From TrEMBL:
<dbReference type="GO" id="GO:1901135">
    <property type="term" value="P:carbohydrate derivative metabolic process"/>
</dbReference>
<dbReference type="Pfam" id="PF01380">
    <property type="entry name" value="SIS"/>
</dbReference>
<feature type="domain" description="SIS">
    <location>
        <begin position="135"/>
        <end position="275"/>
    </location>
</feature>
<dbReference type="InterPro" id="IPR046348">
    <property type="entry name" value="SIS_dom_sf"/>
</dbReference>
<dbReference type="InterPro" id="IPR047640">
    <property type="entry name" value="RpiR-like"/>
</dbReference>
<dbReference type="InterPro" id="IPR000281">
    <property type="entry name" value="HTH_RpiR"/>
</dbReference>
<protein>
    <submittedName>
        <fullName>RpiR family transcriptional regulator</fullName>
    </submittedName>
</protein>
<dbReference type="InterPro" id="IPR009057">
    <property type="entry name" value="Homeodomain-like_sf"/>
</dbReference>
<dbReference type="InterPro" id="IPR036388">
    <property type="entry name" value="WH-like_DNA-bd_sf"/>
</dbReference>
<dbReference type="GO" id="GO:0003677">
    <property type="term" value="F:DNA binding"/>
</dbReference>
<dbReference type="Pfam" id="PF01418">
    <property type="entry name" value="HTH_6"/>
</dbReference>
<dbReference type="InterPro" id="IPR001347">
    <property type="entry name" value="SIS_dom"/>
</dbReference>
<feature type="domain" description="HTH rpiR-type">
    <location>
        <begin position="15"/>
        <end position="91"/>
    </location>
</feature>
<dbReference type="InterPro" id="IPR035472">
    <property type="entry name" value="RpiR-like_SIS"/>
</dbReference>
<keyword id="KW-0804">Transcription</keyword>
<dbReference type="GO" id="GO:0097367">
    <property type="term" value="F:carbohydrate derivative binding"/>
</dbReference>
<keyword id="KW-0805">Transcription regulation</keyword>
C-alpha cells in the first residue's frame, strides 16, 4: 500500500447476510458452523446449488441447512440464496487489515479510520428502523431514564446521559454494578433502562437490566451480538457490527458505531419532544455560557 497521505480510501461494503451470519457465529453448534464456514467461502457457488448439494458439500444434513437459514431470519434455503444473490457485488479495494508492527503512521491511520468507517457503514445497514422508533418513543415518554454500562461501555453511557440531559430527559448513568442494580430496583412501568455492552455477556449489566424488566420498565440494549444474554432480556434491541483487529481490545470500531446509535436516538427524541427539547437546550446553554473564557 502506498504511504502517500493523499491516497483515496475506498471501503469495502460487507454484505448484509455476512453481517447477520457473523453475529451468530459464537452460538452455532458444530454442524451449523460447518454450514456457516462453507457459506462464507462459497457465496458465488451457493446461488446455483440445491439444498442437497450444499448439505453434501458442507458435510451436514439438509435439516441442519434449514436450521442455519432460519437463524439468519430466512424461512428456508431459498431465502438464503436470494439474500446471497442480491449481495454479490464487485470486490472493492479494502485496507481493513490487521495492524502490523511494520506499518508506518500513514498505514496505521488509514487502517484505524477505515475500520471505524466500515463499522458505521455496516451498522447502519443492519439497524432496524422499527426498533429505533420504539426506543425513541419510549425514551421520549419516560418518567426516568436509566443508562447502564461498565468499563469501555461506561464511557458510551456517560456520553448518552450528557446528551439526553441537555434536552430535558430525566436521565441518570450508572457505571458501578451495585448502583446499577439499586437504581433498576426502583424503576417502574413509566421508566426506561438502556444497557450498553459490546459482548452482551457482562453479568452485572445483564442482571441490572433484568431487574429493571422485572419492575415493569421498558428495557433497551445496544450490543454487538444478536444471540447474547442481554438480547434475551431487552424489549428493544439495537445492534452494532464491526471487525475488530489487533490492539482493538476495547472494541474501538464498535464504540464508534455505539456512539452513532446514541446520537440517532438523541436526535430522534429531541424531534419527538419538540419545543420542550428546544427550551431545555436554551436553558442548559444559558447555564453554562459563563463557564468559558
Amino acid at each position: 500500500m502506498s504511504n502517500q497521505p493523499n491516497d483515496a480510501v475506498t471501503v469495502s461494503r460487507t454484505p448484509v447476510w455476512e453481517i447477520k451470519l457473523r453475529s451468530v457465529l459464537s452460538v452455532l453448534g458444530a454442524a451449523e458452523r460447518r454450514v456457516a464456514d462453507y457459506v462464507l467461502n462459497n457465496q458465488d457457488k451457493i446461488v446455483y446449488q440445491s439444498i442437497t448439494e450444499l448439505a453434501e458439500a458442507a458435510g451436514v444434513s439438509e435439516a441442519t441447512v434449514v436450521r442455519f437459514c432460519r437463524r439468519l431470519g430466512h424461512k428456508g434455503f431459498q431465502g438464503l440464496k436470494i439474500a446471497l444473490a442480491q449481495d454479490i457485488v464487485p470486490t472493492l479495494q479494502a485496507i481493513h487489515e490487521e495492524i502490523s508492527e511494520d506499518d508506518d503512521v500513514s498505514e496505521i491511520k488509514q487502517k484505524v479510520f477505515v475500520g471505524s468507517i466500515k463499522a458505521l457503514q455496516d451498522t447502519v445497514m443492519i439497524t432496524d428502523d422499527a426498533e429505533l422508533s420504539r426506543a425513541i418513543d419510549a425514551i421520549a415518554k419516560a418518567a426516568k431514564f436509566d443508562i447502564y454500562g461498565l468499563g469501555g461501555s461506561g464511557c458510551i453511557a456517560e456520553d448518552a446521559r450528557h446528551k439526553f440531559m441537555k434536552i430535558g430527559v430525566r436521565s441518570a448513568v450508572y457505571t458501578d454494578c451495585n448502583l446499577q442494580a439499586m437504581s433498576a430496583a426502583l424503576l417502574g412501568p413509566q421508566d426506561v433502562a438502556l444497557a450498553i455492552s459490546h459482548s452482551g455477556s457482562v453479568r452485572d449489566t445483564v442482571e441490572a437490566l433484568q431487574i429493571a424488566k422485572q419492575q415493569g420498565a421498558t428495557t433497551i440494549c445496544i450490543t454487538h451480538y444478536a444471540k447474547s444474554p442481554i438480547s434475551e432480556v431487552a424489549d428493544i434491541k439495537l445492534f452494532t457490527t464491526s471487525e475488530e483487529m489487533m490492539f482493538r481490545s476495547d472494541a474501538m470500531a464498535s464504540r464508534i458505531a455505539q456512539l452513532a446509535i446514541i446520537d440517532t436516538l438523541y436526535v430522534g427524541v429531541a424531534l419527538k419532544m419538540g419545543e420542550k427539547a428546544t427550551q431545555a437546550l436554551k436553558a442548559v446553554r444559558q447555564a453554562v455560557v459563563s463557564k468559558g473564557f
